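Quick one before lunch.
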Amino acid sequence: MAASRPTPVCPRPEGVITRGKTARNRLRGSDHFLLQYDPGLLRRAAGPFDGALCVDLGYGAEPHTTLEWAGRLRDHAPGLPVLGVEIDPERVERARPHADQVTDFRLGGFNLPLMAGEQVRVIRAFNVLRQYDEDAVSPTWDRLCEQLVPGGLLVEGTSCPLGRVWTACLVRRPVDRAEPWQLEALVLGANLGRGFDPELFQTRLPKAFIHRVTPGEPVYDFIEGWKRAAHETRATTVWGARQWFAAAAAHLSGQGFDVELRPRWLKQGWLVWRRPPVPGR
Ligand SMILES: C[S@@+](CC[C@H](N)C(=O)[O-])C[C@H]1O[C@@H](n2cnc3c(N)ncnc32)[C@H](O)[C@@H]1O
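Model of the S-adenosylmethionine complex:
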């Protein structure tokens, strides 16, 4: 994927230009999470995965987060090609000087600007859908997932300005091409060095969930259950926020929520709710 290659024709980028606010290292938490969540997806090289891209959709006014992601991915899987896609032509022009043999920046939208034969293993879209209406979410997931190789992953998330609190929907394209996407998990990530408060996540949920924190909705029960769990396990704060976070997750699991209790993940401040009900379905 050389920078000197011709830019593909993207007929008409789907979507709208939105605010381009970004910040250096804002997405480091979710970057590290992805490396641990599905390391095989990034290393796979057989069949359609041979040379398949990692796409950063909507990288914003500056390409910092794409370049940082590329560096972290390549520590894990050297040479992995990364493509930053932006719907704002000026932002693409600003990013293009940073392109190299394995990093490219192209103008495009939800219809990705791919060259003939290019395949996509993962799409990251952070702080993009947040500026769209809720009813755009499901068609956008459809559109993006159909451009992934079977088994590929869409990471669609939201973060606070400095990335200390972030959340993401993990949406999988099943191996069986005929199957519709599956919402594999909702992940909630915290920088535990700054403490722990479930309340902070309520305003940082992905678009699919943020307007659904109302009685009768599963995500409302989840957040209320997590708050209750944090309250009930408060005594563990004497050992620090990490212990408290893990104890609250175990309590939440005891309430019947399917949350991942892997100590390594909890220690990092990652709460993974597996197979949450798809909002509105
Ligand atoms: C708030 S910035 C997010 C920047 C970066 N991802 C981050 O989290 O720091 C959102 C960016 O998404 C871009 N965007 C919105 N819709 C898009 C679409 N359909 N295709 C490509 N880019 C899009 C906007 O132009 C904007 O630059």
